[in-house]
Design brief:
globular; 13-stranded mixed β-sheet; Aminopeptidase; alpha+beta; 2 domains; 328 residues
Length: 328
């Protein structure tokens, strides 16, 4: 089968694409509109001039002053979007990956694929394009079980949620953009600097509000205590099936005994369950053999861990070779 691949850097130039993926839709371009140091792009695969698959990526520049490839990274999240049934998905992904890899060759320092879920997805295509992998853990809660979310929590987590309730912790949903600036300022000032460094810029969150929350594709829950913001969570929603935990945070040092992270995550999961979503996906949560930290914390909400991989490719061959030997 002959396929034609094309790379698009502007949403206006895209062909019509069905909204079959949260992470690989035309709407995703809106997240990066006006965001400094971010460049969105999409690789689209055509069969007889009809789009059959797409792969969204974004380039992030990590230095405000220098604009060379060594200070740029390319990121891809989740599997591509496919627009037809019975497609040779592995072959199409080979074409998508090859086109993206060639496009990024002189543009970025490295390319990273994450949140793929399946550890063997695209294995041959990645190997053929000289990517190397690092083993990770994906954690997902099924909301289709007979046991509800509350019963899936560990006893410790249930006690902490109840304690937070008794002390007056409550959740508000962010509904107006006027509140957003104040909330973001609170997040930016009070979080640990490492987390703040990973948290998206304000324009990105504002774009998410307009392009996703206002369209029913996402939620922004704010955790409060005595009218003070102590935590929050941003979730993406897709086709009444998946609720994705995109970002969550809490002032766990200042309000340690109120358990802001725990109460916030429990509330978001309960919302997804009550609205009949099938899965609450925390996505990649840590290294495969990690026994403590984030994976252990999230597993106490009753989800199950699955092995997955993150794939990397440095565009300097000798660095890529050394990294592949070190990690594999």
């Amino acid at each position: 089968m002959n396929y034609k691949l094309k790379v698009f850097y502007k949403k206006e130039e895209l062909p019509h694409l069905d909204d079959v993926s949260f992470f690989h839709s035309a709407r995703t371009f809106d997240l990066y509109e006006g965001v400094p140091y971010y460049t969105p792009l999409m690789v689209v695969c055509f069969e007889n001039d009809e789009p059959v698959a797409s792969l969204f990526a974004h380039i992030m520049r990590i230095n405000r002053l220098l604009n060379t490839a060594i200070f740029k990274r390319c990121y891809v999240s989740h599997k591509p979007a496919y627009y037809k049934d019975n497609l040779p998905k592995s072959i199409i992904f080979q074409h998508l990956l090859g086109t993206l890899t060639k496009e990024m060759k002189h543009r970025v320092f490295y390319t990273e694929f994450r949140h793929l879920g399946d550890p063997i997805f695209g294995y041959k295509a990645f190997r053929d394009n000289c990517y190397f992998s690092i083993k990770w853990i994906n954690i997902k809660n099924s909301l289709q079980k007979k046991r509800n979310i509350w019963n899936q929590l560990s006893k410790t987590r249930r006690n902490q949620v109840n304690k937070a309730k008794r002390k007056g912790v409550y959740i508000e949903e962010l509904n107006t953009v006027e509140e957003l600036a104040t909330i973001y300022d609170s997040i930016d000032k009070n979080l640990h600097w490492k987390f703040s460094h990973r948290f998206p810029p304000y324009t990105y969150i504002s774009n998410f509000f307009h392009s996703f929350i206002e369209q029913g594709k996402g939620k922004f829950f704010i955790t409060k205590y005595q009218d003070k913001v102590i935590g929050g969570i941003i979730i993406g929603l897709h086709n009444n099936k998946y609720a994705y935990s995109l970002y969550y945070w809490g002032k766990t040092q200042t309000y340690k005994n109120l358990y802001p992270n725990i109460y916030t995550i429990w509330y978001a999961m309960t919302y997804a369950e009550e609205n009949e979503y099938k899965y609450f996906d925390f996505m990649d949560c840590g290294y495969i053999h990690e026994k403590a930290g984030k994976p252990r914390f999230i597993l106490q909400f009753g989800g199950k861990q699955h092995a997955t991989r993150r794939w990397y490719k440095f565009n300097w061959n000798w660095i890529n070779w050394l990294a592949s030997k070190f990690y594999e």
